[in-house]
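Structure ticket #2291
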Amino acid sequence: MPTERVPAPEGNDTLHPTTTFPSRSFAGQPVVHSAAGATMPALGLGTWRLDDQETERVTRQALDIGYRHIDTAQMYDNEAGVGRGVSAAGVDRSDVFITTKIANDCHEPEELVASVERSLEALDTDHLDLLLIHWPTDYDRIGATAAAMANVHAGGLTRHIGLSNFTIEQLDEVEHMAPFEVLQVECHPFLQQTELRRWCDERGWIFTAYSPIARGDVLHDDTIRDIAAAHRTEPTSVALAWLLAHGVAAIPKSGDADHLAANWGARSVQLTDDDLARIDDLDEGRRLIDPDSAPW
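Resolution: structure written out below.
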């Protein structure tokens, strides 16, 4: 596997080696790409607030339907459920894209590496496809955290690394500290994150939307319901199709098999330019995930 070198993030001239992994096609999947070479299925399964047993069941159901992107986190305490679900589905590991995220109390380098090893054991895999810093906590130590992420990547424990819940100001400071190539934040028709999406587009990063159906709020919006009726589909499918049309990856969570199937159906919803413009006009900055520790 070819390697590159990137500057160390703490102000010295040390270079960290980084590993470039072969790209995958995920045939039959809508995909998104980073300029650095990541290929990720654009529509995935989110597992936030699913317990370990639910996660096992839903992961298997999602993979049976056709999903190939599963998103979890150390803080969700359900990585083992993802691992069992992947195994039970019988899908080859090379055909599944698994994302997890570093817990807020694991940002120091030694603990970060140990936490990744625990995640790999729980997920029953020898590598992650994507590892994210979940929240920019302990930001005064972000250089050390980024250096540890770069080294985890260089060691082959994860194919790609990225960030979650960072502001543009933080991204400007951090983008060159490690070979990051993905940003994951809350994004849906009522919080469209236009500036963050533009920032990612300009740098060739993948932009991923969590809570993409706004915790179900899209079900009650007249505009989205009207568009869904015109396309004989569900409002959730319309919201997801809108994100996919804008080149955004989305990881809706569902514990219900029918909802999983409806979300998966977003791939075949072809919104018109007028549909897209009407949904674009729904942005109102409605943030649903807003903990006291958030950086905004």
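Closing remark: The chain has ten helices and twelve strands.
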